Amino acid sequence: MVEFDYLSTRVLREICMNSRETVAGIAKKLKRSGSVIRRRLAFLENEMKLKYTLELNERELGLAYSYILRIKLKKSLDGNTLLNYLKQDPVAQFAAFTKGDFDLVIYATAKTHIDYCKWEYWMRCLLRDYITSWKSAHFLAPRYGFFSLHENILNTIDISSPRKEILLLLNHNSRVSLKELADKVKLSHPTVRYHVTRLKESRYIKRFTTVMQKPPKSIHLITFLSYNFAKGFEKRNEKCRALLRNESEPITMNKCSFVASVAGTADDFVIISFDELAEADELVKEWEEIEKEDELKIEDAIVTQVVYGALPFRNMDIQKVYDTSWAIYDRIDAEDNKEI
User: Residue 243 belongs to what domain range?
Assistant: First the structure.
């Protein structure tokens, strides 16, 4: 594995936190020349296969019904067969084969509950000969991380043109210049700048960001956690969250890629990455010890093959962007009431 020096990790952090930051802006912040930053960025793009994309606010886009599914298979399922099924409908955004307590994970999002239910029924019928069990958990509060949204689902959202076209182009490459955007949508530079600003102000875009398609860590553990919620749960649960947030700087990649509170067949959903399996076992044991009073139950599996979409591997200032509050539920409730 290639060793990344301190400057490279700092450049990576800046570009993950804001992929539209200019080379000059990064150079000024890190007190290096523009040519040095440009070379480091090119090195990172090549070594880590960086993809510039958008972290989108699904609820603001009208995609309020998001689910994470864990599926147990009774026989092998061909990846191309699964991919063909997933591409036929815009609801699915991510899918990966895993090894452990479940064999397949799918992330899906839809405008309405009916849209999601129709998709689930259709998918379960297609996979009827393969499925042993199918468990779904509804996303309540994403605390950290995201799944990239595909163009086919973005084409269904209610945003007028040319703003939707600009959103699609930025989702494909969030670092594209305003000049290139203007040429592609055939609008003036100031007009495109206005639309990009409005997309951010409308809260459709949470962040212009970057993901690593070739991450430095090799083991990716997907976990579903369920609790008994004994008295004092919130304090104990915060200790578990601290294990995910606390990292020794500098880092090349966050050990935690995704954390969300969910409802249904689990209470929390977490994706964590490690260099060695022993590290994963150690973390799980720490969780179980902290949450002993809550009778913590864990279902987990290691990703063996990403079939559709991508995992959100990044180098983020996790202390700054991780939502630790319990008031997150109050904000969601207020948004729902506002929509009604």
Answer: 217-307+316-325
Mean pLDDT within 131-147: 94
For residue 183, the model assigns a pLDDT of 95
Asked, for residue 280, whether it belongs to a domain, the answer is yes
Query: Can you give the CATH number for the domain in which 24 is found?
Result: 1.10.10
pLDDT above 90 for 269: yes
Q: Residue 247: inside a domain, yes or no?
A: yes
The string of pLDDT tens digits covering residues 211-253 is 999 999 999 999 999 999 999 998 999 999 899 888 888 899 9
Task: Tell me, yes or no, whether 287 lies in a domain.
Answer: yes
The reply to whether 132 falls in a domain is: no
Residue 293 has pLDDT above 60, yes or no: yes
Q: What is the number of structural domains in the chain? A: 2
Mean pLDDT value across the chain? 93
Give the model confidence (pLDDT) of 16-64 as tens digits.
Answer: 999 999 999 999 999 999 999 999 999 999 999 999 999 999 999 999 9
Q: What is the CATH number of the domain that holds 238?
A: 3.30.70.920
CA 97/CA 303 separation, integer angstroms: 6
CA distances from 45 to 130, 139, 189, 310 (A): 39, 32, 27, 16
